[in-house]
Amino acid sequence: MGHVTQTSTRPSGAGQTAPGASAPGSPESAAAGGALAGRPWISRPAQAFSAEALQQRLIGNIRSWRDYPPSLRLWFWLVPVLTAVIGGILRFVRLETPRSLIFDETYYVKDGYSLLISGYERSWPDKANDAFNAGNPAVLLDTPEYVVHPPVGKWMIAGGMWLFGADNPFGWRFAAALTGTVSILLLTLIAQKLFHSLPMAAAAGLLLAVDGHHLVMSRTSLLDIFLMFWILAAFGALLMDRDDGRRRLAIRLASRAAAAKDGRPSVKQLLAGPWLGIRWWRIGAGVCLGLAVGTKWSGLFFLAGFGLLSVLWDLNARRVAGIRGWVSGGLIKDGLPAFMSVVPVAALVYTASWTGWFRSNDAYYRHWAESNPSAEWGWLPDAVRSLAHYHQEAYNFHQGLSSDHPYEASAWSWLVMGRPTSFFYESPGQGAPGCNVSNCASAILSVGNPMVWWGAAISLVVLLFWWAGRRDWRAGALLAGVGAGYLPWFLYPERTMFYFYAVSFEPFLVLALVYCLGLVLGRDTDPPWRRRSGFYVVALFVAGAVLLSAFFYPVWTAEVIPYQDWRYRMWMPSWI
Questions:
Q1: How many CB atoms lie within 10 A of CB 401?
Q2: Which residue stretches of 433-488 are H helix?
Q3: Which listed residue, of 238, 272, 373, 384, carries a Cα 20 to 30 Å from 78's Cα?
């Protein structure tokens, strides 16, 4: 046999197989790069550093969608588009109902209109909602309004009103519905990237499309749907960067090996490995994360979590490639550039989102620094000091937010939907439009599909074992997404919290559920009876989730139904 390399055992990044895909060691994954028969993770020294062998170790058998036949290539785009179309229909039909500002729309829709008119938030007179609901939004005052959330999400709401007018609910909610619909398309593409399986990608998109929590947040102009979208877009960009970075590493390391007589890079070249150049996908992730933080500050947790996750991916890539100083080399040649590609970019994007505030003369705290000179920080421009003071005051507000609310929900209850938020409720009497019985109900409750949410909660436990036991990077990535959006809320037990905050990490819950459905589905190498049985179980689960969504749909979209029918849908006393 001769000498063999120790560049990798089973690579934790590429050698593991997504649920529902080909297994490592299968005929498709065995021979690239001169792998030894029966032991594809061992290579001869002269073959271990070829471009093919390195790519096999680092990214496996991943092929571009362009490499497939045109008939199959069509489905790579048709499946995401179809799931988005289904989700779009559910989100845009009757979007104007209710025809009034509901729940926190009273803040964000009116703030969006203020931004559209002035570039900053202005205050409103008493009973402004009545005027706004009547199609007369031009009653805002000239005085600035103190707000505690950054402006990106409100600018997105303003975009819908710019297109369709601020005098109608469709204009108020258009941006939320569009963002929710596009996020379904994006999640389907991400699932396709993660699992390399069209059925699993379709399941992910469809489950998000029909889930009530995501549906309600897509039909209501609150900030959280926009936060979710930018977080999901950042994750997708980092997935693209992961493969791109590993391809670059394989090509650059292989070029050094090709120049050597024995087909191996020198000891010096393997000490830290090559620089990988500018990572444009990572910069794109920085832009998305800056927009996420510019929507809500909770995006900072995703910025930290995703940044750490990306660096860990790079460290593992260098280890698998055979670089001896993979820790120090990865930290210097990947970690520092990663920081510069993400954090400063996100900071610049976040600062740019305050352009309307900077350009104004009357925005809240705009001239605070001029009337509060500082010997210590006076070297900073007045506008920067004023904005910093604004942020300090907003942070203090969030820290002290502990007032009672009838629909507050501890983070402990979110995964089991212990206390969903009621956005709207009316009790039309007999004779009212749509009500033919003595008592009816019209409600918007942000409760998710129980099969999706409770199934996802169980799936997180499975993913923990799969990540710890099998070292599957996909399980770790999904757990990181859930953890970044969920765990930080436990640091603020006294703060008033709501269940709908969980929409920021809901896509990762759906992906976790689909990951487990992939385990049920089985691998391509399993016997036909096993694959067939798994397919039936998965199909029944997805069909059951769709039917259950049809059952709950009236209480997600303010349909007028008999009061008793509404009670049938209140499965827990805490949902009322």
A1: 14
A2: 450-470, 473-486
A3: 238
The residues, any chain, with a CB within 8 Å of residue 480's CB and separated by 6 or more, are 305, 306, 308, 309
Angle formed at CA 231 by CA 327 and CA 286, multiple of 5 degrees: 55
- Please report the DSSP string for 12-28 in residue order: TTTTS--TTSPPTTSHH
Comparing CA positions, the residue from 215, 212, 210, 207 lying closest to residue 539 is 207
CA distance linking residue 518 with residue 204, whole number of Å: 11
224-275 pLDDT per residue, tens: 999 999 999 999 999 999 999 999 999 988 887 777 766 677 787 888 889 9
* Residue 36, beta-bridge partner list: 39
Please state, in angstroms and rounded to a whole number, the distance separating the CA atoms of residues 523 and 542: 19
CA distance 236 to 395: 30
Length of the chain: 576
The gap between the terminal CA atoms of the chain, to the nearest Å, is 71
Q: What is the pLDDT of residues 118-164, one digit of tens each?
A: 999 999 999 999 999 999 999 999 999 999 999 999 999 999 999 99
Question: In 3-state terms, what secondary structure has residue 144?
Answer: strand
Q: Cis bond leading into 98, ω under 30°?
A: yes
Please write the tens of the pLDDT for every residue from 333-361.
999 999 999 999 999 999 999 999 999 99
- Kind of pairing, strands 422-426 and 440-445? antiparallel
Q: Name the strand (E) or helix (H) holding 368.
A: none
Helix (H) or strand (E) holding 304: helix 299-321
Take residue 494 and report the two structure tokens written for it.
């006294």
Burial of 547 (0-12, 13-18, 19+ CB in 10 A): exposed
Phi, psi of 129 (to 5 degrees): -60, -40
Estimate to the nearest angstrom the gap between the alpha carbon of 389 and the chain centroid.
30
CA-based nearest residue to 302, from 476, 480, 460: 480
Give the pTM.
Answer: 0.91
Interatomic CA distance for residues 86 and 82, integer angstroms: 6
In eight-state DSSP terms, residue 151 is S
Residue where the block lists tokens 């999706």: 452
Give me the sign of the Cα torsion angle 158, 162, 167, 168.
negative
**8 Å CB contact between 552 and 575:** no
Residues 6 or more apart whose Cβ sits within 8 Å of residue 496: 401, 402, 403, 404, 405, 408
Q: Which of 556, 570, 563, 574 is nearest to 406 (CA)?
A: 574
CA distance 90 to 129: 27
Angle at 175 between CA 169 and CA 179, to 5 degrees: 135
